[in-house]
Write a structure and sequence with these properties.
The structure is a homodimer of 366-residue chains. Chain A has 366 residues and is α/β, with parallel strands linked by helices. The first copy, chain A, contains 14 helices and eleven strands. In chain A, a hairpin with a 6-residue loop joins strand 1 and strand 2. In chain A, helix 3 crosses helix 4. The N and C termini of chain A lie far apart (47 Å). The model of chain A has no long low-confidence stretch (mean pLDDT 94).
Chain lengths: 366, 366
């Protein structure tokens, strides 16, 4: 079992990573939460493949379970789902000692985390991420959210889980496109502060997503450790943690432009590349690093042009720019960017000339 | 100016109490939040009497203001209001440095506090309570909430304001019934740990709500100081803070039975008396203290029987008891009660015999 500590002032917790981890989860619950109900929130895909496998382990230990499933996809990160789940769970009888499990990908994790933070003013929750994206990124660090009509993740809380259990086996049923989308976040971690990791990813490009146990454990544990280090330094995203948003100011605007009909990771892939190009255009990064990144994403079959996200959409740089200005990370009307001094060296920059941002966007329309 | 510190591990803040305080609020904003917008949330009553008076002070200092009003009453503590406000505020362009003001009574304070805690994962907010109930109780301490269909305040967060500004002048336009309802919370504070304060209230009963400046300042500052002490000891309501719920397990059930069509304070008045009677029935309090309290509430023209809340409702003890069991304070199926060893001496008690609770409720039906 790989065990990684998220060290925080309060509410420190562990990430447990291992193939076939379900039985350990039930054991953990039985040990630490005797007589407390397990409230499981999942989506329809995970329900189909894994819910019974998980609940069987809980039932075998006589743990009371209430399970609820939401529709797949970003549309479930809404006030409507939040209200509906809250009312159902309250009606069924929850108390402050029960445990809520987020059993699914980023959508389920963000929604369930938010719900847990507001129901009875806060109930403990545990993440069981089932997608690559949620295993390497969104399940760790305590950001919870739903979407506003005007942008992604604009409503939510900082609320840390009590534990995170990751089972790479769940990736075996994940569609290839979702696996790829999650891989964009893996690349992000290498860009932030680890050129060696980027080179390793580049070298093993063909094997990275083959789910060879050794490789996938290295990928997940490397990303989670990186996230743990950053969250420890800056839980509430006052500064350092913003580095984790590399590519995301672009990505959120692109997702919004396409009404969230693409995968988050697909937008992140292009967002990373756009951030690198912006860094180059501003004189921070070398063109060689941009090319290295572009080739890596391309050979990974990830989007590198706006038309790769949608070739039907009429892309307009001014619309994308406008969306970027409603981002949470915007500051007094200015967009705050995470830029790169090349692969493995990110930094925060305010007050960037909007005409250069616009020009950069336009390079991806062609 | 009366200045009371709420001392917390993080996010300590001050309560400022004074007649004619609006100009001080604008000065405070200008001093500490230069270039940040003031987003004011209020209700229709407060809008009618005071909104312009407040915004004039902000405008005079060139502070940008966005003001929104919600309908009066508990119905505004809903997911619907929350979503509608969030979308409007985001659309208008909010950033993490702006300040949200809760300008109104308990409903506005609870809703606005909750909204502030979740919009962009948390934006600073300031309370300007305008009713007696919110000035002595709900604006201080960082509990925020909306109501579930199944009970009051079941969804919310702990989120401390950056400051609280109290102007007793706003009480002059408060309907007598609302003033009385707020007074029930004042009585609560005396019951919790201050028999001397109870005796003072009893002695000055005729003057308490006449809004004589000296008296009303004493009443508000005494209650706020008491709340400050308790919140300091136990911000997240693990134990001591539960004492502030004296009478509230009954009160929330009664309000829910009447679909929130009565004032919270009216339910609290009866809730306090029921808690004292339950304490007597369980052998903790003397009948003399029950009689003292009953006489005080009666002479204050506050409810002392269920029929005083509604003489149309067919009150059934089993229904009230059932509602009490979905309260947040219930623990593993049992109701957790705050009881009194007489006036000025409260304590927490779990696992009370439900038949005695039921019998106690029945004494108030007759």
């Amino acid at each position: 079992m790989v065990k990684i500590k998220i060290n925080l002032k309060y509410n420190s917790y562990y990430i447990y990573l291992q193939h076939n981890i379900f039985d350990d989860i039930a054991t953990f619950h039985k040990k630490y939460y005797t007589d407390c109900k397990a409230i499981i929130i999942t989506d329809q895909n995970v329900k189909k493949y894994y819910l019974k496998k998980l609940t069987d382990r809980f039932s075998a230990k006589n743990i009371t379970i209430n399970a609820y499933s939401v529709l797949n996809g970003e549309k479930s990160k809404s006030f409507k789902s939040l209200e509906s789940l809250a009312e159902k769970i309250i009606k069924k009888g929850i108390n402050r000692n029960d445990i809520i499990y987020a059993f699914g990908g980023g959508v389920v994790g963000d929604l369930t985390g938010f719900l847990s933070s507001i129901i009875l003013r806060g109930v403990k929750f545990i993440q069981i991420p089932t997608t690559l994206l949620s295993q390497v990124d969104s399940s760790v660090g305590g950001k919870t959210a739903i979407n506003s009509k005007l942008g992604k993740n604009l409503i939510g809380t900082f609320f840390q889980p009590a534990a995170v259990f990751i089972d790479p086996n769940t990736l075996s049923t994940l569609p290839r496109k979702d696996l790829l989308a999650g891989y964009a976040e893996v690349v992000k971690y290498s860009l932030i502060n680890d050129r060696v990791f980027f080179n390793w990813l580049n070298k093993h490009n063909k094997d990275n997503l083959s789910l060879v146990p050794k490789n996938i454990l290295k990928i997940i544990s490397t990303c989670v450790k990186k996230k743990a280090e950053i969250v420890k330094l800056d839980e509430k995203e006052k500064k350092t943690r913003m580095l984790l948003n590399l590519g995301h100011t672009f990505a959120h605007a692109l997702e919004n432009e396409l009404n969230y009909k693409i995968r988050h990771g697909e937008a992140v892939s292009l967002g990373l590349l756009m951030a690198m190009k912006l860094s180059y255009n501003l004189g921070y990064a070398k063109i060689n690093d941009f090319n290295l990144l572009e080739n890596h994403l391309k050979s990974s079959k990830l989007p590198i042009k706006l038309k790769d996200l949608s070739n039907k959409k009429k892309w307009l740089s001014k619309n994308i720019l406008k969306k970027m200005q409603t981002d949470k990370k915007s500051y007094k009307g200015n967009i705050r960017f995470i830029l790169c001094k090349g692969i493995g060296a990110t930094f925060i920059k305010n007050n960037i000339d909007k005409t250069i941002v616009k020009k950069t966007i336009e390079e991806f329309i062609i």
